[in-house]
Amino acid sequence: MLSTTIKSAGARQAVLRARIAPLAAARAVSIWSKVPQGPPVSSPIGARTRSLPIAVLTRSIAGCITEAFKADSNPKKINLGALLSLSPTLPYHVPSSPHPGGPKNAQLTPSSPGVGAYRDDAGKPYVLPSVREAERRVIDDKMNKEYAGITGVPEFPQAAAKLAYGNDSPALGRIAATQTISGTGALRLGAEFLQRWHAGEKKIRIPTPSWANHKAIFQDARLEVEQYRYYNKDTIGLDFDGMVQDLKSAPEGSVFLFHACAHNPTGVDPTPEQWKEISQICLQKKHLPFFDMAYQGFASGDSDRDAFAVRQFIRDGHKILLSQSFAKNMGLYGERAGAFSIVGEDAEEVKRIDSQLKIIIRPMYSNPPIHGARIAATILNDPKLYTQWQAEVKGMADRIITMRKLLREKLEGLGSKHDWSHITSQIGMFAYTGLKPDEVEKVTKDYSVYFTKDGRISVSGITSDNVGHLAEAIYKVKG
């Protein structure tokens, strides 16, 4: 009897296990099992990178250039490709250093996305004294850590708008402005607003080339991205005729993204007269201009001069969208202080636009961070501190401009017969040298000067100490 009972219990358990097994197996398969592995931020350079998103590919190239630079033992080495801080975590292949002294296969991931960050003449990060003072005041005021409103620290958006549009701008009374998570957040917010409320085609046209992240930002908002002609690699300058043709041939009411100043990555800007012509074409075609202004004050050293295009378009009657970043001109990279604004028809329209911006922001990030915005607002709203900041921004811009002049002078002084005027006619942090990929490779291999194969250099990586070596390297390869 006992034996029969045990056998019966065992049979029941076997049946139960048979029923549970498929359920357990199903639970073992994660609901995220179909999520594919995305490409790493820094990944091997080679055939596989051709399929990567451009923003990822650019960061990938930057990471590998920097790691190769770190592995190079040449005391004269220069990194003009990226200013990236790396830490050992994931394995990637790194190009062999021409001057061994480090590992050929290092491990790296960016621990600080410093591409495009300003450096002083010693090659070090720089915190503006005006920012230090503003931060001291913010801390001394013992402000609370409550949430900001949906549109941010109240004193900041309008102060940012005045900086961009001008204190006496007729548009100030009809601008919907909000604080954003730096310039990237402003672009993303603008993209989402266009997706929801632009009556025309859900498409934006960006210059060729453009900042690597532009395409990703707009596509993420489900906007189609098309590119218009901008840079002429043969003249190392603006393809103005091509740009004009593309503006004229685009459907009426198209959205065009413009870099307000210091075009990234070429450093090539339209002249004031060309901006006026661009504005008139946009009026005739009823195009909607979307300005990305990441370098106001940092480009020429003059905030008003750098805002020329934005203010000209406003004078001509455009109702623009504007993205602002305070990463470069205030050095608030990690504080993520930015602003987005739209010029409306009147106060009633602005009120409606503002309501829709809040509806977008609320589920996206609810409200922006407060510390960087408080620092920026303190500077912008205090006349004495504002004057100090303007002088410091000019100092940063002047250093970049001086390095451009020095590089050109040294190249010409070495007897180079090439026309290097583009080095000084370009503006901002980046410069296209005009070197071809094979020339870049030779400069890197023979002289330990690292930059991207399209010949682009980060001018802030040039210092008084290394500009001579840079010029000599370029001259010996280019002639």
Automatic annotation (TrEMBL):
The keyword DNA damage does not apply. InterPro entries: Aminotransferase_I/II_large (IPR004839), Asp_trans (IPR000796), NHTrfase_class1_PyrdxlP-BS (IPR004838), PyrdxlP-dep_Trfase (IPR015424), PyrdxlP-dep_Trfase_major (IPR015421), PyrdxlP-dep_Trfase_small (IPR015422). Keywords: Aminotransferase, Pyridoxal phosphate, Transferase. It catalyses: L-aspartate + 2-oxoglutarate = oxaloacetate + L-glutamate. GO terms for cellular component: mitochondrion. SUPFAM superfamilies: PLP-dependent transferases. Its cofactor is pyridoxal 5'-phosphate. Pfam families: Aminotran_1_2. It is an enzyme of class 2 (transferase). One of its GO terms (molecular function) is L-aspartate:2-oxoglutarate aminotransferase activity. One of its GO terms (biological process) is L-aspartate catabolic process. Its EC number is 2.6.1.1. Residues 114-474 form the Aminotransferase class I/classII large domain. In eukaryotes there are cytoplasmic, mitochondrial and chloroplastic isozymes. Belongs to the class-I pyridoxal-phosphate-dependent aminotransferase family. Homodimer. This is Aspartate aminotransferase.
